[in-house]
Design goal:
globular; Peptidase M28 domain-containing protein; metalloexopeptidase activity; 341 residues; nine-stranded mixed beta sheet; Aminopeptidase; two-stranded parallel ribbon; 11 helices
């Protein structure tokens, strides 16, 4: 999760909880069951196995997996190896970020009945230089790797082609996903039926953030700030900035799908706009339907806001990850895929 000027807004939005709350050989095209009928379920234990692997990579390479470092390169190699074992084709996309560091995006293709209809799921695999980034965001990567393995082993029939994007340099300017989007043609953007971002999904005792597709939470925020006597000139620039964030007509349907999932589980959610600009959703906003699965646990450490324990620190290790949170996030992603297929 990349920290930007809007992300601190999460302190305010936390007051608005609502209930409901290079190329390899392609994989075999044999498929047996539709996603909606397959009983597909991700496995938290397997996700934790991947997290242990990423933690070992960090330990062996200076304690981090940051873009351009040996830990970052080893993380990319691990992802490529997992895709090869699953039998899926991969594309490696290189770019330079604002610090002139070379990054590598990895795109895994899981063929469906139509190559002109794509569901894109993404998670950044780089960490900050201060720590191993196991929750932020090896957790999201581990979820996508397990999804890839499950789709391979269960030979699920897919209506849409699925692309799994493992982004680099999210922590330095959200550069990987930006480089990817910049290269897409209008026709390629149109083919993407949804982008689902997965970030920090191992957080213990999480608050569930739902991307606010219709920005209704901004109006609620304004109403509450007025009721509390805050002067308009103090909050209007912030809210105007949030309202200016691009949106897509398909965002709301994805929001409602996630709301229904968490409502069925009797879990509280928070509608949120600010985090859309602070992760790999940002380059896609207004271009394709977007949603995200993000789990926060906001804490004030003196004057510093942490969005989860050990956020952007050396202690962001596997001890900070709750397998139950990983399973919940995995179930939410499968629910989204089922609704889209």
């Amino acid at each position: 999760m990349f920290f930007n000027k809007f992300l601190g807004v999460c302190v305010l939005t936390s007051m608005f909880a609502i209930s409901g709350c290079q190329k390899n050989e392609p994989h075999s095209k044999e498929k047996i069951e539709d996603v909606s009928q397959s009983g597909l379920k991700l496995d938290a234990a397997q996700m934790m196995t991947h997290l242990h692997a990423f933690e070992q990579i960090a330990k062996q390479h200076g304690g981090n997996r940051a873009v351009g470092t040996q830990g970052g390169l080893a993380s990319a190699d691990y992802i490529l190896d997992q895709a090869k074992k699953a039998g899926f084709s991969t594309e490696l996309q290189t770019f330079e970020n604002r610090e002139k560091t070379k990054g590598r995006n990895i795109i895994v293709e899981i063929p469906g009945e139509s190559k002109q209809s794509i569901i894109l799921l993404g998670a950044h695999y780089d960490s900050v230089k201060m720590g191993p980034g196991i929750n932020d965001n090896a957790s999201g990567v581990a979820l996508l790797l397990d999804l890839m393995t499950q789709l391979s082993s269960q030979k699920v029939k897919l209506k849409h082609t699925i692309h799994l994007a493992f982004w680099d340099s999210e922590e330095v300017g959200i550069a990987g996903s930006q480089a990817y989007v910049k290269k897409l043609t209008a026709e390629q953007l149109k083919a993407i039926k949804a982008y689902i971002n997965v970030d920090m999904v191992g957080t213990k005792d999480p608050e569930i953030l739902i991307a606010d597709g219709d920005k209704s939470s901004i109006d609620e925020m304004e109403k509450m700030l007025k009721e509390r006597g805050m002067q308009e000139q103090d909050y209007k620039p912030l809210l105007d900035g949030l309202r200016s964030i691009p949106s897509h007509s398909g965002d709301l349907a994805l929001e409602n799908t996630l709301k229904a999932f968490f409502k069925e589980k009797n879990l509280e959610i928070k509608e949120d706009v600010a985090t859309l600009t602070a992760s790999d959703t940002a380059p896609f906003l207004g271009k394709v339907p977007v949603t995200s699965v993000i789990l926060f646990n906001e804490q004030m450490k003196g004057d510093e806001l942490e969005f989860a324990p050990c956020y952007h620190k050396a202690c962001d290790t596997i001890e900070q990850v709750d397998p139950k949170s990983m399973q919940l996030a995995g179930d939410a992603v499968i629910h989204l895929l089922t609704s889209l297929d």
